[in-house]
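Hi Prof. W.,

I finally got the ABC transporter prediction working! I wasn't sure whether to trim anything, so I left the full sequence exactly as given:
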Amino acid sequence: MTDSSTVLIDARGLKKVYGRPGDKAGFTAVDGIDFQVRRGEAFGVLGANGAGKSSTMRMIACVSPVTAGSLRILGYDSGTDGARIRARLGVVPQDDTIDTELTVRENLLIYGRYFGLPWKVLRERSSRLLEFTRLSEKADDAVATLSGGMRRRLTIARALINEPEIVLLDEPTTGLDPQARHLLWERLFQLKQDGVTLLLTTHYMDEAEQLCDRLVVMDAGKIVAEGTPAELIARYTLREVLELRFAPGERQTMTDKCRGLAERMEELPDRLLLSTDNGEETLSAVHRQGVQPLTALVRRSSLEDVFLTLTGRSLLD
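And this is what came out:
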């Protein structure tokens, strides 16, 4: 049985600065963050582009040195025990780096040799992983013939060839269609059920809510909130959001009429968001003000609303 209290990743005052040593003009990508990831959980790092997510992941993957602070992974120091840590990690980068000149199965076999695994073990694991990722029928096909979703699944299968204790996933479903995304979520959920620890970055709200047990929200290199998706939504938002869209040229006038109708109002380029405990009552109040939007939608609050509250901008900005 998995011991969920065991800390596998422990970051304290973690900092990453890009630039030459001593260069005061260096860019600080990660600015003194603290977090812990426990065995068997799916932990998310949420943030807009440039928030520091990928820099954090690269330090955890032991391919980018820590500038300051401490980072211990699987009980080892990332600065001195990088090779030991990497041997027990699986990494799914943002961009697929699979070899297009090899077949699907050959990608797994060749990659597995980097870990010194014997051919007999590799053949057995490759067959099992191809079945797990639903690629068995494509085993002897060239990678060039695969769809984008199949390539992502192959990248995940390759990351699992060494039976890692932690799998790092950097924007795992970017660019995939909804069907491919949901299939990938299903595979990741199964990994978590099997006791594998997942650390993923994403800017998809539904992905974070579906997959993550806990998460942190990053903005400008700092952690601005931490908790379960439900805790963050309860802490930083009201129960519902009323989304209003207006005809071109009408938004500013209608926005002015809506002021004061909800506890919080966010103006986005394509819509107006009113945070409220009762969306239908707020919509009635909007209509009483003579406001007639093109469309009106009442929905439950989400992690995107949390991000708006914390940073003042949309996650996709």
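The mean pLDDT is 91. Does that look reasonable to you?

Thanks,
D.
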